[in-house]
Amino acid sequence: MVAIADTRVISGNESIRARKVSVYSQSDGTSLFIMTSGLRSVRDKAVTYFEEELYEREEPYDRLFKVVNAFSDQIRRVIAEDKASLEESGLHFNIFTLIGGKMVNDKEHKLYLIYPQANWVEIGYGTPYHIIGSSGYGKPVLDRTLKFEDSMHFALKVGCLAFDSTRISAADVDFPIDVVLFFADSGKMVEHRFEREDLSEISDGWHERLRNSVTNLPSAWLDRFFDKMSGAAGSENLAVRATYPS
Q1: How many other CB atoms are there within 10 angstroms of residue 143's CB atom?
Q2: CB burial class (10 A; 0-12, 13-18, 19+) of residue 146?
Q3: Distance CA 101, CA 50 (A)
Q4: Which residue of 41, 162, 192, 200 pairs with 138 in a disulfide if CB–CB is 3.0 to 4.6 A?
């Protein structure tokens, strides 16, 4: 699995940097990541409660769905404590969560989506990716390129292109980005942060290739359309002149 999260948080008129993905390792050597979008205050409270529960456990979680249930419980706790006051202040209670990894008794690595109501679904083979947060801008890139059987190298490359498309169009998304790679064979997770200059080559290259690809698309159909429009425009101009004789 490849997880990519930006670090821009908009709070009123201020923009700050903050991590939106966290990696947790258990005493049995297994690991998982939690990625969130939505109200930062809701996220921070739910994650803090979850971490307290995780670190106080005597036995590690043996199935990832149990981790998902535990995090969902903390969301319900925050709902009970804060939802009413947030909505009285005009703020919508909002947190979406992705949890991925593989516990010791899981047959394979898993990915789950938790909704703001604290119910969840498993992301299966029919969905090679899932986006939370600003989902509309990078989705076309992923829909046109990514397949479930693609390599992690390809997934990371196209994921960064999807992020770059989102960054261009969404004011609440920007560098740096945090990347988590989960290797199913070993169960290991690797984290890395990319700054803007780290990906400037791929961003600029993607921009130029996209423009060149549009330029090189077949244009015979377009030429016929413009020829037709030119003729219509000419007729309209003649009619206007006839309406207003000198």
Answers
A1: 11
A2: middle
A3: 16
A4: 162
Domains of the chain (ranges; CATH) run: 2-194 (3.60.20.10)
CB 78 within 8 A of CB 14: no
Torsion angle, alpha carbons of 131, 152, 179, 76, to 10: 40
For 156, phi then psi, to 5°, come to -70, -40
pTM, to two decimals: 0.88
Q: State the pLDDT at residue 157.
A: 95
* Single-letter code of the amino acid located at 15: S
Q: What is the pLDDT of residues 136-171, one digit of tens each?
A: 899 999 999 999 999 999 999 999 999 999 999 998
Asked if residues 141 and 168 have their Cβ atoms less than 8 Å apart, the reply is: no
Instruction: Write down the mean pLDDT value for the chain.
Output: 91
Q: At what angle do helices 200-216 and 152-169 cross, to 10 degrees?
A: 80
What secondary structure, in 3-state letters, does 7-18 show? CEEEECCEEEEC
